[in-house]
Amino acid sequence: MKNSKFEFRNSKNLARGARPVWGESIAPHSFRISNFEFRIFPFLLASLLFAVPALLAQNALPLDAAEQAIDARLPEVAIVKLHAFLVSSAALDDTLRERAENDLTRAMLDSGDAAGALAGLEFPQGEVERFWKAEALSALGRWEDAAPLYGEVAADGPASLREAATIGQAEALHALGRGEEAEATLARLEARSSSTLLRLRLAEFCLESRQLERARQLLARSKPAGLFETRWRQYVEGRLYLAQDQAAPALQNFEQILKDPRGLTPALHAGATVALMEARTALNGLEVADNVIEDFIWKYPDSPYLEEMFRRLDAIYAQEENSSETELQHWAAQGPPRRAALALYYDGCSIQRESREEKAIRTFTDFLGRYPRHPLAFEAWMKLGQLYLDTGRPADAISAFEGAMRYSADPSQRARAEIAAGNAHFAKREFLLAAEAFRDAAARCPDLWLQATYDSALAWLHLGNYNRFLEDYNPLSERYPATDQRRDLLLEEGLYQAYSGDPRATATLGSFIHDFPDNRRVSEARLAIAEIVFAGGDIDSASNLLKAAYVSKPSDQSREQADYLAIFIADSGRNRQEEEVLRLGRRFLDAYPDSALRPQVRMKLGQVYFRRDDYANAQTQFETLAAESPSDPLADKALILAGESSVKGMSPGGIDHALALFDRVAKGSGPLGPYARQEQAVIEVYRGLDKEAVIIYDDILRSNPETALRLAALCGKADCLVAAEAGASPAPGPSPAVSSTGNACAAAIALYDQIAADPEATNPWRDQALYKKGRCLNKEGLTDQALAAFYDVLNARAPAARQQPDFFWFDQAGFGAAEILEDRAQWPGAISILEKVAQAGGPRSAEARKRADQLRLEHFVWD
Q1: Closest by alpha carbon to 257, among 247, 243, 246, 271?
Q2: For residue 506, which of 554, 452, 542 has the smallest C-alpha distance?
Q3: The pLDDT value given to residue 323
Q4: Could you write out the DSSP letters of every residue in 806-845?
Q5: CA distances (Å), 858 to each of 822, 837, 845, in order?
Q6: Are 769 and 712 a contacting pair, CB within 8 Å?
Q7: Of residues 750 and 162, which shows the higher confidence score?
C-alpha cells in the first residue's frame, strides 16, 4: 500500500506540494531532503510588471498596504484588504485591477488556498495569468498540468517572467521524476545567470544524480550575498559531505546552521534538521538519530513541515529493532490538535508493524473517531480494513474500505479502496462482488487499470465464467502483452482448473510451460501437473515432474509445496520408503516453522510411526500437531489417534491418558466429539466395564450421529448388553417360565435387528448384525432362530458378488450354522452349508471344503 500524499492543511500551512519562497519546501513526498522546491516571489518582479503612472499613486495606496502585508508574510491580511479594494473600486483602472487580482492570487497561494487561486484562473487571459495558473497547479501538486504552462511562459512570455517560469518548469519536471530534463533546464538558465540561488539548486540536482564533482564546482562558484544564501550554501555543502560519506564534517555544518537559526526559512530549518539526523545516523545509529526528529516535533508543532517530520520519524521507527511509542503517545494525549492527530495516526502505524493487530485496530478506530475528516482519514480507513482482512474478518474489512471510499480525495484513492474492497470480497469467496469492485477501479483510474483488470479476471475465473474471464484477459493481453500479469493469468487459469478438477488443467499448464519456459513461475505449473498425476495414481510421473519442478528454481512458496508433495510421493506406490518419508517429514518441519502445511506433515509422520508400531513417536507427532495447531481441522483427529497410540503403547497410565485425550475432543465443539466418545466406550469395554460403555453408547446415539457412527454405536451397545448378561451372576429364585433370552439379550437382539433392517446399512454391517443375533440366540438355546439368522447372512446375495470385507461375517455365519446342524446330526445340511462357504472363495473356503469332505467320509453322505 502506498504512503499517503496528504498533509494536514490549515490557514498557517502550505497546501500539499505548495512552493513558497526560494528554498521553502523540502519535497514532502520524497526521502531526499535535498529535493528543494522553490519559487520566486512575485515581489521580485513587481517593479517590472506592475509599474503604474504617478497620477494613479493615490488610488494605489490601499493596494500598497496589501502588498506590504504580503511582504510581511501576512497573506490573510492581504486577502481581506484586496477583496475590499476590488469591491470598493467599481471604476478601477485596468492596470490597477490586474495588479490587484495578481496580488490576490499571490496572497491566496501564500495562505495555502491554491484551489481558490486556481478557481479564479480557469481561463487565463495573458502570460502573467498563465504563470499564476502554473503556480497554483504546482501548489496543488498537479505537476503534469503545470509543466507545459511554465514551458510556454518561459518560451514566449515577457522577459521579466521567463526566469521564474523556467525555474517553475524545472521544478515541475523534477517532481515528475524527469530529473535529467529538470537539471538541463536549470543548467541552461544558470549559464546566463549570476544567481547564487540557481547554482545552489542546480547543485542539489547534481547531488541527486551523483554528479558530485559538478556539484562541488557549482558550490565553489556560489557567492552568497546575504544571510539566507549563506545558510543555504552551508546546507548544500553539508549534503555534499554526506554524499561523499564524510558524516563528521557534515554534522558540523548542520549543527552550526541550527545553532543560530537566523536567516533560516521554515523549509531550510526542517531540511537542516533532517540532514542532521542523517549525519547522526551514519555516525551513531538510528537510536540516536530519532532524537533529532523528536526534538523538532516537540519544539515546532506549528512547522509547515510537521507532516514530513512525522513521516520521517515513522520511517526511522520502522527500521529500529525496539522502537518506542512513548513520544507518540505523549503527543497524542496533548495539544496542539494538529500534532496530536499525526501522533495518534503514526502510533497506529507503529503498532501495526509490531503485528499487534487488535491494538492497532483500536488505535485507528480512535483516530477516525476523533479526527473523522483529517487528511489521513483515507489512509487510516485503508489500514483498518487491511488489519481486519489480516485477522480473518473480511466483512469488517469491506466496511472499512467503504469508509475509505467516502473519504477518498481523488479517483486514484477511490480506485485503491475499490481494489482493496474487491480483495476482501474475494477472501469471502464473493467473487461476483469482487469482480464488480475491480471493474469499477479499472474504469476509474488508468494507473491502476492493469492491476484491477488482472484481479477482475481472477474473480471471473473463480466463478468459472470463462467468457467474462476472456473479456478481461484479451484487452489486458493486447495492451500489455509482455507483462507478468498476462502470463500469470494463463497460469492462474491452469491452477484453478487443477483445483476444481477440470480435465483441461494439464493441457493449460502444459501450454504455459511450453510458451514460457523461462518464466519465474514455471515451477508452479510443473508442480501442479505433478499433483494432478499423483492424484491419478501415476506415482512415477509425479516423481519425475517434481524433480523437474526443483530444477526450475521454484520460489520459496513453490519449494515448500514441492517439499510437501515429495513426502506423500515417498509414501505411495509399490516401493513405499518409510524411512525416506520420515526423513523428508522431519526436514520439512525444520525448514518451514511457519508453514500452514505443518499439520498435514505431522499427521503423515504420526501415521507412518503408527504403521510401524512405534506408538510412542506416533503419539508425540499427533499430540504436537494438536498443540501447535489447535484450530486446525486435523487437531481433533490427531488427539483421537494420540489416544489410540497411548492405548497400544501399553505404557503405565497410557489408558488414563488416552481417556483424557478423548475427553478433550468429546467436550469440544468439533464434529469428532461423538467419535471420541466411541473410543472411550471401546476402552471401557477393554477394562470390562460394559455397563459404563452402554451409557456412553446411549450418549452417542442421542447426538444424532452420522450413519457409520450410529451403526457402530448400536452394534457396540448390543455387544455390551450381551457381555454384561453373560458376566452377571444368576438371580435367585425360579427360572423364567418361558425359554427365551434375558432382558439384556433381548434388547441386544432388537438392536441387531434394527441394524439389519436399516436401509443405509452396508453389507458388512448387515451381515455382522445377523451373525451376532444368531450367536446370541444360539447361546439362549433358540437354535432354530439362530440357524435362520446365520442362513440370512449366507443367502443374502450370490457368493460371486461378494467382496473381501463381507467374507469375515459370511464365513463366521457359515461355520456357526454348520456347527448347529452337526450338533443335531443333520449331516447333509451341515455339508450343504460348508460347501456354500467353500464355493464363495473366502479366506476360510479351504477349511470349509476340508470339513465338508470329512463329514461325507465319516457319515457316508454322497448325495
Answers
A1: 271
A2: 542
A3: 73
A4: HHHHHHHHHHHHHHHHHHTT-HHHHHHHHHHHHHHT-TTH
A5: 12, 20, 20
A6: no
A7: 750
